[in-house]
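Entry:
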Amino acid sequence: MNDQPLDPREHPFRESVAASYLQGKVDAEQFVDGQITKVASDVVPLRGAPGIAVNRISELLFGENFTVYEWIGPWAWGQCQTDGYVGFAPADGLSNDTVAATHEVSALRTYAFEKPDLKSWPVATLHMTSRVAVSDEAHGYCLTDADGWVSRRHLVEIGAGPDLQKDKSNFITAARSFLGAPYLWGGRSSLGLDCSGLVQLALMRTGHSAPRDCDQQERCVGSIVENGLASGSARGLQAGDLLFMNGHVVVVSAPGRVLHANAHHMCVAEEPFDEFLARVAAMGLPVTTVRRL
């Protein structure tokens, strides 16, 4: 077995069952290939154990693929293929219809309507980065596998969105679009999200994948900026930099400003850097890492 224990958030293994590709790396009673499913509800909670009273650890968005390794009554244990996160999802939020997505939602959120008409009944609410398969177009709307018509203005072809590498302001713009969204532990949509969810979604909107939790992001997103907070000031920072501390991540949104989903404001907020730094310092939470995209 591997001397370094594998992170169960990133590797699907339990005592009873594990993914086949982990055979020889972990102990389990059985190893299975898994079944690829598609998230078929607007937002599906991912939990650390089966049960509606168990805390949410993340969320799955419509159109994401979720590999199921074990079905346990009304629950499916598996791995989200967007960010590799492992958990338990309600089985009724998943579908075996895994038609390939063609477009993703570029708006903060949008409706899928019963007809290609803004006066018709909305049948689903889709969120930024949700993926859909478009099968028809009419009157400025696209017929999607969300069983409804979505405004063409709110969709982009997969891979055709703004590019972070061409302009970092695309990332900041995507993050700012969530301003005012309520804070929600484990959330990944404008209905509620946490600090790492905000960073992950803004990066995804600009064509770059990122792991789910802030400690995972701290290890691999971008590159480390040495002396990024020299003398406790923001002089070494650039817009788009990520500041990490124990259990939290914030985005440098402009000179002297930071943007983050946080429990102090209980929403996504933008505030002066000095105020933020003084507050977290008083809480005993120094900035541990600065990373540049």
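The first strand starts at residue 18 and ends at 19.
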